Amino acid sequence: MLNSTTPSPTGHAVAMGRLIGDGALFLQLVDVAVHPDHQKKGLGKRIMGLLVEYVDEHAPHAYVSLVADPMGQELYPKFGFEDVRPGVGMFRCRRIQENREFKRKREETIKGLMRGGNE
């Protein structure tokens, strides 16, 4: 969804969000992110609003899923997303699963986020 808010080749992106999928029935909301220097300015909400508006207009019957990091778990319900409990998100990535140091750092970051830190 390139538009006037997309940075030029010389500009710097400070926030983003993407929809991936088949364009009609199954979509996944991924990579909603705001640079730390620009958080708490409403950019995440603006991105979510635009993405949900796009889905409602172009794929109103689509099943839209996402995986919410702890920091985003308060944002997404404001846009109609519901928890899938008792379902549990899962992943497969050999690069992480087979690299002990990478996995250790990832687990430390998750623990920090769960405690409310900004790691």
Automatic annotation (TrEMBL):
It comes from the Eukaryota. Residues 1-107 form the N-acetyltransferase domain. Pfam families: Acetyltransf_7. SUPFAM superfamilies: Acyl-CoA N-acyltransferases (Nat) (SSF55729). PROSITE patterns: GNAT. GO terms for molecular function: acyltransferase activity, transferring groups other than amino-acyl groups. PANTHER family: FAMILY N-ACETYLTRANSFERASE, PUTATIVE (AFU_ORTHOLOGUE AFUA_6G03350)-RELATED. This is N-acetyltransferase domain-containing protein. It comes from Delitschia confertaspora ATCC 74209.
